[in-house]
Write a structure and sequence with these properties.
The complex is a heterodimer of chains A (293) and B (296).
Chain A: H1 11-38, H2 54-61, H3 63-94, H4 99-109, H5 116-126, H6 133-140, H7 154-182, H8 186-194, H9 199-210, H10 212-227, H11 231-236, H12 248-258, H13 262-292
Helix pairs in contact in A: 1-13, 2-13, 3-4, 3-7, 3-10, 5-7, 10-13, 12-13
Chain B: H1 24-51, H2 55-58, H3 73-79, H4 85-116, H5 122-129, H6 131-134, H7 137-151, H8 157-181, H9 185-193, H10 198-209, H11 211-227, H12 230-235, H13 244-253, H14 261-281, H15 283-291
Helix pairs in contact in B: 1-14, 3-14, 4-8, 4-11, 7-8, 8-11, 11-14, 11-15, 13-14
The chains are: A mainly alpha (293), B mainly alpha (296).
Chain lengths: 293, 296
């Protein structure tokens, strides 16, 4: 008999106890309080009367929230394919370990580790219509006649944020994809090469199918991140012009901590949590499967 | 593993046929790499160059690409901004250190319990520990703020560190669990023969072998805590308790309304340097953390 079978298993709980206690106190209890608050008219100044589902009914009729949610969905649907597509293209470009390609990878990845607030203020400056160097560069290259006022319309502001975030996080997907491509059995690629498969043939028929899981997982992680976007919009657009670039989290922040409508903000948070839960469950299922295989 | 040198061995079959001359595509790839480097490096390089301009030069319309003269005027302004840069750096540093400590102290034993014991209900507990992934912390900020306000944890390093630990804990536990699972059973059995208790096996045998995972946990905790914005914005609302990301936003607002572009870029550079330094020093750990769970 294996000796390990005879040792007691219950001490495992003792090792897990601190973390379980922490999650109970700082995640599960607050979650309960969030539900309770969402059923009350609590504000930062007081209140707290039970009002049933009144807040949820209000959400149903709150066109501003739906507009924010729609905007967040649009942001996610536009940004995610850009990040995945460019990330994959960069991975294909730099997957070989030549010195130049290694340097390219390192440079592309650097913005991933800096703060969103830093990158947002960096781009806020680059895109400024007066002192912004990107505008100056575009004018000097005769690509535009005069500086673009990026934050005057919701459309341009949206693209300004998309550009800055693409710069900031495209390296994240790239690194995961490179690892995915490099974990492909080299024999398969060699065999395809012998059979005379072209470069794009190998990409389409071997690399893409064999990195599908990494692609899917990265898509989910990116999508969740975009659905929870706040910093970049708070800093670059302040939700403007005319409240057209509020994201879901921004709208919750606005209600809870600017207008002090905590009960209503809590109800909004619950709705958002359900939306994220769907994505996160898929992410965990995928991650768990990778740990097994 | 670093970003520059991920695993190798398969790459030769991916784009370059063996033997023979480099195909014309190779020159295209080199040109593309150079273009990518220029585009990706330019923003941070320009920000750095702007930060060492004189204040007037940094706000010049139209702007200059390069500094007309070298000056540390912008940095001097940031150093003396409001409560002083030292205060903001130490706020961010303290919160990050507390977050690192909490993540290690909580995640290392939890990962060990998950990896090395077979209790009934373990899977449910594991899912419970991953709860913070499923419930976005953004949603929990309201109840946490109300609770923390009651017990004096608003505008407190500990309070913000707790929020950052919530954010970082699932990943940390996941990483520690994987690391402990990878340790061969024989090592554990040898320790048992020597009569080591579970606690002693953990501290004497397992922890020393899990040092790389602990470094990775600490690295991610540092970078994510240092950069976290929303909770810091809500919980650190007094001028003296701001963290660096909140300092950046205050510098933009400035004292008179007009944006002080030079000071703003100086503060951006200051906020970036610790992240880049820590990342470049510990790249290997960062990438292995990034890949755990995402790629088998």
């Amino acid at each position: 008999m294996r000796r390990s079978r005879t040792i007691p298993q219950w001490p495992g709980w003792l090792f897990m106890a601190p973390a379980l206690l922490f999650v109970a106190v700082f995640v599960l209890i607050p979650l309960g309080q969030l539900v309770a608050t969402s059923l009350s008219d609590r504000s930062l100044l007081g209140g707290g009367k039970f009002i049933g589902f009144a807040n949820y009914w209000r959400i149903w009729n709150d066109s501003s929230f739906w507009r924010a949610l729609e905007f967040t969905a649009k942001y996610t649907l536009v940004l995610t394919p850009i990040l995945i597509g460019l990330g994959f293209a960069l991975a294909l470009l730099t997957v070989d370990n030549t010195p130049l390609k290694r340097l390219t990878r390192t440079i592309v990845f650097l913005p991933v580790v800096i703060g969103l607030s830093s990158s947002s203020l960096l781009w806020f400056w680059l895109l400024d219509e007066q002192v912004g160097l990107l505008n100056k560069l575009l004018v000097d290259l005769h690509l535009i006649g005069e500086p673009i006022v990026w934050f005057a319309t919701a459309d341009l502001a949206f693209w300004a944020v998309v550009i800055s975030i693409t710069w900031k996080v495209v390296g994240f997907g790239m690194v995961l994809f490179i690892a995915g491509i490099q974990s492909i059995n080299p024999d398969i690629l060699e065999a395809a090469l012998m059979d005379g498969a072209s470069y794009w043939g190998r990409v389409r028929l071997i690399i893409l199918p064999l990195t599908r899981r990494v692609l899917l997982l990265t898509t989910l992680v990116s999508a969740i991140g975009s659905m929870l976007a706040f910093d970049q919009f708070y800093i670059m657009t302040s939700g403007g012009p005319r409240g057209q670039t509020f994201t879901a989290v921004y709208w919750i922040y606005q209600n809870s901590f600017i207008s002090f409508k905590l009960g209503y903000g809590a109800a909004l948070s619950i709705v958002l949590t359900f939306i994220i839960l769907v994505f996160a469950t898929m992410q965990i299922a995928l991650t768990a499967r990778s740990a097994e295989t | 593993m670093t970003v520059a040198a991920l695993t190798s061995g398969t790459e030769r079959a991916i784009s370059t046929p063996r033997g023979g001359r480099a195909p014309p595509g190779a020159y295209l790839a080199i040109a593309a790499c150079v273009a990518v480097i220029a585009i990706m490096a330019a923003p941070m390089a320009l920000s750095f160059l702007a930060s060492i301009k004189t204040a007037a030069d940094a706000s010049a319309v139209p702007p200059h690409y390069l500094p007309q003269a070298l000056s540390f005027e912008n940095y001097a302004k940031v150093i003396h901004f409001q409560a002083g840069l030292a205060a903001y750096l130490s706020n961010s540093g303290l919160v990050a250190l507390m977050t690192i400590a909490a993540c290690i102290v909580l995640a290392a034993p939890a990962g060990y319990g998950l990896a090395r014991f077979a209790m009934r209900g373990k899977e449910v507990a594991f899912l419970g520990l991953l709860a913070p992934i499923m419930i976005p912390y953004q949603a929990l900020l309201t109840p946490l703020y109300l609770d923390f306000a009651r017990v004096g944890l608003v505008n407190s390093h500990l309070g913000l560190a707790i929020v950052h630990t919530i954010l970082q804990l699932p990943f940390s536990i996941f990483l520690m669990r994987n690391s402990f699972e990878a340790i061969p059973r024989e090592i554990e059995e040898a320790a048992m023969v020597d009569g080591c208790s579970a606690w002693k096996r953990f501290t004497r045998v397992f922890l020393p072998l899990a040092v790389p995972a602990i470094v990775t946990v600490a690295l991610f905790a540092f970078i994510n805590s240092w950069n976290e914005f929303l909770a810091a914005l809500i919980f650190m609302n007094r001028e003296t308790s701001f963290t660096v990301p909140i300092l950046l936003v205050s510098v933009r607002i400035g004292n008179h309304g007009a944006v002080d572009w030079g000071a703003l870029q100086a503060s951006v550079v200051i906020s970036i340097i610790p992240c880049l330094a820590v990342y470049l020093a510990l790249q290997r750990y960062y990438v292995s953390g990034l890949l755990s769970g995402a790629v088998k």
